[in-house]
Amino acid sequence: MRRIFTALISAAMIAAAVPAAAGTRDVKLPDYEEHVMKNGLKVFIVPASEVPLVTMRLLIPAGSYTDKEGDEGLAAMTARLLLNGAGGMGAEEISASVEGVGGRLDAWAGRDYAIVTGDFLSRDFELGLDHLARVVTRPDFPAEEFERERSIVLAEAMSVKENPYALANREFLRLLLAPDPYGNPVDGYPASVRKMSRDDVFFFHKEHYVPEGAILAVVGDVDAGKAKKLIEKKLGGWKSGAPVLVRIVNVNRTEILSRRVIVIDKPDLTQSQIRIGNIAVGRNTPDYFDLKVANSILGGGFTSRLMDEIRVNRGLSYGARSGLGQFRYGGFFGIYTHTKNATLRETIDVALEQVRLMRDVKVEDEELAGSRRYISGLFPFDIETNADIAQWMTDLDFYSLGGDFVEKYRSRIGAVSSDDVMRVAREHFGYDANLIVVMTNYDETKQQLEGLGDIEVISMSEIE
Amino acid sequence: MRRRMPTVALIVLLSVLFAAVPATAGDIIEVAIEATVETLDNGLKVILVEDHSVPVISYQTFFRVGARNERAGITGISHFMEHMMFNGADKYGPKEFDAVLEANGGYSNAFTSNDMTAYYEDISSDGLELCVDLDSDRIKSLTLDPKFIASEMNVVKEERRLRIDNSVRGQMREDLDAIAFKAHPYKWPVIGWMSDLDAIDRDDCVEYFKTYYAPNNAILIVAGDFDTKKAMKLIHQYYDDIPAQEPPKPVRTVEPEQMGERRGVVRKRAELPAVMIAYHTPDIKSEDIYTLDVLQQILTGGKSSRLHRRLVRETEAAMSVRASFPWRIDPYLFEFNIKMKPGHETLEAEEAVYAELIDIIENGVREEELARAKNVLEADFVRSMQTVNGRATKIGRYEILFGDYREIMNVPGRYRAVTDEQVRAAAQKYFASRNRTVVTLVPEA
To answer: Domains, chain B, ranges and CATH?
Structure first.
């Protein structure tokens, strides 16, 4: 796989190119029906009949963010166990029944929410919905399934330590945000997973898996009226409970006031992993579109500045990008790249210089316009499949983004100015004050890193 | 406009013969692709699939070249050429391919495998002519500037460090291929050996480009929202003057039959033991490929699959077990990839795999196992063609692998036709110990 690339291209060049007026047409979500059931479950039905498939997506506000201190990983464990026995059916029985009709059923937790998805041939809609309702409302959490899953989670945590890219991502987020719950690994820490009990899972499910606050989207080849009745039949009996009060105050999410450099010393590496970041803002921010454009200029696509300077001009890395992680109650900004140990400092310096330029120099009209067209042009590809639409339906509602978010997306991107870009870069990207996490063979790179900032070294044995 | 699911061109017919009875495979899935196909005088095969459901197009070019066409000394050059295709031609110079495309709301990427090199651009419908212009330019007149060759090679070396040298899994994968094959070019990694990356020069690139990036060695696929007549006219306009070249020489080496088990050990800093087990399989023309897909499902697809049950659920020796059977032009491998839990030996995994394979060879598979596997394969096949990009990619892959994209339409039927006796016979034929290669990971502190 090649890639990741760019450039500041001349106006003459763009004019010479065959014109393609990207993103001039409206993009809209298909027509949908929306209702709230008596028990509080919110339902979206989106008929789209060209492929005989139906996708179901149920969102429950029970992500790792709800894990209390010491219980990290409980939300994820609960979601992982849903399919492993429910309503008297065993894990293998559920799996065999779903696969018996070529269906897919899955459950997992992220940071903000837990998701259960089903994807079935439309003639198996009822069977699929039946399984989805069973695993969500009547999971058995069999003792042996709990113990087995616990040991798998612990083994997976060890396995991440074999993958420098994934480990650097996990540790970067933890060092940037923890003890804020968003900084914890979704699957928790070995210590919290070891002390977890099956009762904890039962209790978590009872408390969090309630129809109030949950959102169901059904997208595909279904009749809206019939689907509504079927959903009522399968999920109408789901007991309503008082929605859980999620902690939204995070005393620990303090602003970063100076530069912190943390080195994770992994002596077997010939290539260093680099992460640079800062605390940013949540998903439902008025700065959303400004950040989208600013990030795209700095580190999105193949023509971003980071890609151009680090990869194209200097051949320092296979990839260099930046991105925003945006949750319900907060978010972060990060730069992600890697390079051979000998060019570690050079790569960090180039990346930091690009952040500085975003803050100090106003972006030219041409680069800004290109970035806006890039984002707008690709937007239709985000709304292509049943699963894409189901995700939009649940996310728009969960994050309160407004019913016209999709429709107005392109015009809002088009309205972002160079002042907006500079403002959000200053507020959220961080330059003098940020966190730099480097995973490297420190013996080899120690001298290079001198003068970068206050350096704290962590050995691999200190990482759980 | 109101957005609809994309399927004017892809018609999926589903007739329900029975009510929802699991594991009876009573439904019939049919896939139909309505395409316009034309081969230009210079040999470029053009496949157009018009579909107005979403206002986008996917513009893809597949070349019949991959690591399988390389030789010792230039391993990795196919993948390297993939990178160089983004580094400038006559009309669109260095950096301009992506700059122009992205500034017009498009996205491009590419991939190289052992058998093929493919490029795609995804863009809104009004970007068709831009794609025709950009892609014909680089095929016509790729620059191969020495300065960019040198810089891009550093990028590829970083890619190798990322994917192989600093990856436990990547290292095992590289060793598995190197041990399982002693003659056929499938033995070297697509990204190439580091020493070859150090040595590949501009002359190598020029020769490789001339031979393998000729129009007569390529297939152009456009899927999505465009007008077929207008598109074909544009393609003629931009591509007709690109000259055909001597067809590349066919790959001649045939891997000799394996005469006994081969084993390798990777000692590397790691947390958990792991093992990969591989068996040589037939080439793409064999009907057994569908049967082997069914076996892959029966063995490791889902919680009720045989090896998941045995290794993850019953003995709990493994944290994960996966089988894969990547389709390749020439005979390749059916492989198992198993990660152990702490305190367990890879021998436990090997014994479990061999025991299940022997059971299938001796007793065959159960009716419901077979039906389940076939239903999953058929439904996943339809799922893989939900997007415009997915459909174009499938057409390109099938052109390279089978020489004819129309094989796509036969796939659901081929899965349905697999019998329990074919499954047993395939297991017996391929899963023999003398045909086996094993690579184990011994973690070092």
So the answer is: 35-239 (3.30.830.10), 262-444 (3.30.830.10)
